[in-house]
Amino acid sequence: MGGGQYSIVFNGEIYNYIEIRQELKAKGYVFHTDSDTEVVLASFAEWGEKCLHKFNGMWAFAIWNHTKQQLFLARDRFGKKPLFYSFIKDDNGGEKLVFASEMKAIYPFLQEVKPSKKFHTLSNITHIFDYEHTSDTLIDGIYRFPYAHYAFYSRGDKQIKPIRYYTILDYLTTPLSSYEESVEKFRALFLDSVKLRMRSDVSIGTALSGGLDSSATICAMAYLGKNDVRKDWQHAVVACFKDTPLDESGYAKMVVDHIGIKGDFVEIEPLKHWDKIYEYFYLFEYLYITSPVPMIAAYGVIKQKGVSVTLDGHGADELFSGYGHLIEALWDSKFNPAIAFDVLTTLNQTRMPASSAFALGKEAFIYYVKKTIKHLIKYKMPTSQDSNHQNFKKLDYFSQQLYLIFSETILPTLLRNYDRYSMINSVEIRMPFMDHRLVEFIFSLPFSYKLGKGYTKKLIRDALCPFMPPEVVWRKSKIGFNSPIIQWIQRDMAQGGLKEWFLDTTDRRCSRNSKYTEIYHSITKRYSQSWGATMV
Strands, E, within 78-212: which ranges? Predict the structure, then answer.
């Protein structure tokens, strides 16, 4: 590109590359491939850093300008694709920049691989969601490049200075005049988001749970598939946890029957994977509150089925209802009894089992009292780094809480996790709910469009019910995709459980001498020699 002026290292996908390529062709650009990578490079040549606003997709990339001897680094708006960097000493006493999509690729360049000085704080369960949007990592000397940022770097620079190019708050739209119009708008945006993400030269499918979000995604794929958008989409893999509270395969069966495809229902058996648990942890790179086994196993099965790209339902929880955050909408009721009752009813009907009327009333009373006191004494409550943005202040209180978990805590952590789970198996996850146009639209809406009349994710249900089985659309229970670790611990090996393994592990007096530690170190040595990084 440009007579060899630029070179690129690119991790991700630009879904609207066809439209951008046509725009660039009109400007005189000639393309030699059908790839989105060439479009990224041409876009940078034409628009510089402003090209990032053109892209609809996920990315972490680096572009080297041979003429200027300058590097351009960038990550996507929401942090779907990772980027890490470190400064290392060169032979002349200077410093070089090393960057990669995984920390382990940087390990061979470090003088010593050791935990971050903040390791104990970052690994504490109360802080495990607090740092993915920061530059902090678990490894000393390795830094995370922030999402929604870009940076220019020249040889000899002592540091990288990321520049933020995007925040949702800068792109909020004027709400439509009615809820019904918003339903139509959401439906159109979601279908277009799915349509863009169905562009692929390999087989596509979905990890189907049976919950509303993943079901909405594959039902939209089915609707678009009937209209000849793409024929090869009928691959749904369902992770099953037989005889545990986390099993949703019954709902998933309703979905595949409704759209007329044969799903692959796969029982996740921990014993088949537990001998690789330390290898999984090493590949995963981070600590989290649940075992990675079911997720890594599920995407492993997806790959075995010949599917390399999935469209999954991630992001909808944080956009619409949060995790235990529904009660925050009480503050938006402004003590209006009718609105408060609707919020409480919706909250209660998502619980298993539901609270009694007395317990619910007591919970509401305590919430109001605590919140009122905190406001009166001006108690500093957890809030977003963007809390001073004029548009943040215009959001209702419930949406402010969603903004925090969407932008800075829960969702960035989950995006990191699912990138690892899938890429360990060479599977790429695309997320229609994470289309920036959709996100900006939803954050522009009042909380009453997101919950009410006993239902969370109200807008999704009303917009997509024509394509989905009613039993799933109007289902009120919510089960996250997690490890049924309690049931696995309780069952012995003869029943497919892990009871003996956990007893054996906890009974060891000195875990440092255990064979599992030896396995971990052998895996670490083997993989640190095989992973690559890019050095400037």
Answer: 84-89, 95-100, 143-144, 149-154, 163-164, 204-207
Other Cβ atoms closer than 10 A to 94: 12
Is 505 in contact with 516 (CB distance < 8 Å)?
yes
Query: Considering only CA atoms, which of 262, 243, 244 is closest in space to residue 252?
Result: 262
Distance between CA 194 and CA 432 in Å, rounded? 5
Rounded mean pLDDT for each run of 10 residues along the chain, 536 residues in total:
79 97 97 95 97 98 96 98 93 86 95 92 84 93 97 90 97 91 97 96 90 94 82 84 75 93 84 83 88 86 92 94 83 89 87 82 89 79 86 94 94 95 96 98 95 92 95 81 69 68 62 48 44 50
CA nearest to 472, candidates 295, 180, 298, 249: 249
Backbone angles phi, psi at 141, to 5 degrees: 90, -5
Coil, helix or strand at residue 89: strand
Q: Where are the beta strands (DSSP E) in 140-214?
A: 143-144, 149-154, 163-164, 204-207
Which one-letter amino acid corresponds to residue 225?
A: G
Non-local CB neighbours of 245 within 8 Å, separated by 6+ positions: 479, 484
